Amino acid sequence: SSDLAAAAAAARPPPAAAPAADGGGEEMGDAERHAGIRVAAVTIPVNARGDVLVTQRAFRGIYNGMWVFPGGHVDKGEALREAGAREVREEAGIEVDPASLRPLAVWEGAVASRRRQFCVVFFSADATCGSAEECTMELQVKEVHRAVWVPRELVPRLLDTHALHDAVEMPGVAVVDGKQVPAMVPLSELQAGLGGGHKFALRAFLDSRPEYMTTRHGPSA
Fold first, then answer.
1. E-assigned strands of 47-196?
2. Cα–Cα distance for residue pair 145/44, rounded to 1 Å
3. Which of 2, 31, 116, 157 gives a 20 to 30 Å CA spacing to 211?
4. Is residue 62's pLDDT more than 80?
């Protein structure tokens, strides 16, 4: 599609040996395991304040607790932008403006044991809500364990490699015994647990939004 072509032209994809977990999304059934190349759409939701939504996959399957941006497989006949908006709504209960989806990067991966290849197209999108307090989340219980809006001033810190910011916690939500409850999320968990493809896409996002770097604040190194 034109969306994929535009994203591919703008991206600098790494070698095609990325772990499948970077694709995000639902578990694969037996029929899917031998279906060849799968295309996924992943979206970085941004609220009106500039905060970024990150989710943690449920502790099962190949995704097993990884921190990711919302995303999953593109359905047959579905446009990439439609899939990107749908996945945010299904996984986090957050609406994004479909017209605001902007392609950021393409990430390729393969799982030899399942004879599968992945092509993941990353987007950023504007959430239709304002601040984190106004952006009420409804997590997909079977797929998502936790979610948090990372404050705008802390977003660049997700890519810090020189220090883990253990002392910084952010208010989020978690699924406990099938119910959604408030939870504090350490910034260091996202630093250590964010998938490689998602870090790659986040770097592309920050490169496209220099205001995040020029107004950078947060924990000192």
1. 52-57, 67-68, 71-73, 102-111, 116-126, 144-150, 169-176, 179-186
2. 18
3. 2
4. no
Buried b (16+ CB within 10 A) or exposed e, 155-185: bbbbebeeeebeebebebbbbeeeebeebeb
Within 13 Å and on the Cβ side, how many CA atoms surround 58? 18
DSSP per position, 2-42: HHHHHHHHH-----S-B-GGGG-SPPP-TTGGGSEEEEEEE
pTM for the structure as a whole: 0.83
Return the H-helix or E-strand segment holding 43. strand 36-46
Q: Is 119 helix (H, G, I), strand (E, B) or coil?
A: strand
CA distance 35 to 54: 29
What does the mean pLDDT of the chain come to?
A: 85
The rounded distance, in Å, linking the Cα atoms of 31 and 73 is 14
pLDDT for 172 beyond 80: yes
Helix or strand holding residue 45 (H, E): strand 36-46
Name all contacts of 181-188 with Cβ < 8 Å and 24+ positions apart: 183/146, 185/146, 185/148, 187/150, 187/154, 187/157, 187/158, 187/219, 188/164
Instruction: Please provide the size of the chain in residues.
Output: 221
